[in-house]
Amino acid sequence: MTNVTRQTTDRRGRSRRQVLAASGGLLASGLAGCLGGSAASSGPTAVASFFSFYDFGREIARETPLTVENLVPTGLHGHGWEPNASVTRDIIEADAFVHVGPGFQPWADRAIQTLQDDDVDTALINVREGVELVDLAASLDPDEEGVGEGKGKDPHFWLDPQRAAQSVDNITEGFVDLLPDHEDTFRENAETYKTDVLGRIDDDYRAIFDAAERDVVQLAAHNAFQYIGVAYGVEMRPIVTNLAASDDVTPADMRDAQAFIRENDIRYIANGVFESRRPARQLLAETRVEAYFPVTPYAGVREDWVAKEWGYEEIADNINMPTFEVVLGNKAPEDAGPDGWAEEWRNFE
User: Fold this and answer.
1) Beta-carbon count within 10 A of 207 CB
2) What is the pTM of this model?
3) What is the per-residue pLDDT for 29?
4) Is 173 helix (H, G, I), strand (E, B) or coil?
5) Which residue has the higher pLDDT, 1 or 319?
6) 279, 250 contact by CB (below 8 A)
7) CA distances from residue 86 to 25, 37, 71, 83, 217 in whole angstroms, order as listed
8) pLDDT category, 252, cuts 50, 70, 90?
């Protein structure tokens, strides 16, 4: 079964122009702050609704005419972001739209509905197709619905490198369908990435968690890291119990975190790079926690990461892995990460 949906029309260019014209002034302005825009490319273009899959896509498309662009502006979290209407223009003008499946990004669901309603033939590549999802965490806000059939599943599957490999396959099939003359290159790039990057990350994560005496991690972050726990046998305790990053921490959430820290003698905690620092600072002030260090579910990028051309691999190596080494007690902060890592990221702003 293919993961690609192509809307049929006999007049591709006309269909897109008609939809753009009908959108009027709402689509007049560009999408500021993106890593790139489809309008800048004269060749075939795929746009992605989420950073991780933009990064996978650009690796798969290396040495082909296909340009892959990220729709999420630099510095913003990919889940919970609501773009203005101009993003629809980028999707309509693109040859393919790489998305995370229904129920995760409402704006992407609306854009897909627009494509379908107006018979625009932008190919839809669902990265979640065929991925085995886990049930929502017991710590999750009971009002959350999740995704999948019955909406009882956790959407953050790409944090597990093995599940992420399935999304690489899905993107590859979509790109092959789009540009079949470059099938060999797409498939070779994908296999190389799955083996040399995702396979290596999986091995490194497993070594970190296998070496740890501690099997709990306190996160001053939202509920996005369950797949790490499932994959490597560790309990991830988020302080924010909803699926999207927010600053919505209740007094009960804080009391639970304080008790968990006390019961497990936790000295270091992890804080989301694109989330509020306030809960982490409160835990520093009110518990024996000595410092917080960064984690991210690969849902966004900082400007300095873009300047260094960091992708999923570099973020895993330079952000998540050193923090897990520290919060699990494998290494002292000064011994984790590259030179200067602890100084840069200890209680980061």
Assistant:
1) 13
2) 0.85
3) 31
4) helix
5) 319
6) no
7) 9, 11, 10, 8, 40
8) confident
Task: Give percent of the chain with pLDDT exceeding 70.
Answer: 79
User: Under 8 Å CB-to-CB from 191, ≥6 apart: which residues?
Assistant: none
Cα–Cα distance between 199 and 257 in angstroms, integer?
33
Locus of tokens 């806000």: 141
In 194-266, where does DSSP find H-type helix? 200-211, 226-232, 251-263
- Pair 325, 208: CB distance under 8 Å: yes
pLDDT at position 152: 82
Spatial CB neighbours of 203, under 8 Å, sequence gap ≥ 6: none
CA-closest candidate to residue 253, choices 222, 217, 288 = 222
**Domains of the chain: residue spans and CATH:** 4-126+159-197 (3.40.50.1980), 212-345 (3.40.50.1980)
> Bridge-partner residues for 47, per DSSP?
69, 97
Residue recorded with tokens 């619905």: 145
Angle at 7 between CA 33 and CA 149, to 5 degrees: 80
